[in-house]
Design brief:
By secondary structure, the chain is mostly helical. It is built from seven helices and no strands.
Length: 143
């Protein structure tokens, strides 16, 4: 009876993927003491840090900032991309002029343009981080 329960528990852990996460957690706990906690904190230190930022409101504050940036970029992308797409689709001459350019970039994932936004060469193009983040998101949405 006991062997059957152990076998069922083992199959459950393997089937659900829990065993993999437990193994990774153990490896993490074994490797963490080899490095300074400021560089590679262990699972317990990470859990305590997570509890701290959850209780002091830091996690909620920065999560809301991230959500605001994502939504702003998403809406800007729709605001710019949808009218442009309609114009390109309705005006034949414009479509013929723009289509080769669009086809060239169509298969490049939007995330690949991230480097262009981070490493903008001309100083006049550089924006503060929040505005730059929104422009990255807007470009991804418009694409």
């Amino acid at each position: 009876m006991m062997k059957k329960r152990l076998r069922q528990a083992k199959h459950f852990l393997l089937r659900t993927g829990i065993a993999t996460w437990l193994i990774l957690l153990v490896i993490w706990a074994l490797i963490a003491p080899l490095y300074p906690p400021s560089f590679f904190p262990g699972p317990l230190q990470t859990l305590l840090g997570g509890k701290e930022i959850l209780l002091d409101g830091t996690l909620a504050k920065f999560s809301l900032i991230s959500v605001e940036r994502v939504l702003t970029g998403w809406f800007l992308g729709i605001l710019i991309g949808a009218p442009l797409g309609i114009l390109i689709g309705r005006i034949r001459l414009l479509r013929q002029l723009v289509e080769p350019f669009v086809d060239f970039f169509r298969f490049i994932p939007a995330i690949a343009f991230l480097t262009l936004f981070i490493m903008r060469l001309p100083r006049r193009w550089q924006a503060p981080a929040p505005r730059r983040n929104r422009s990255v998101l807007a470009t991804g949405r418009a694409a």
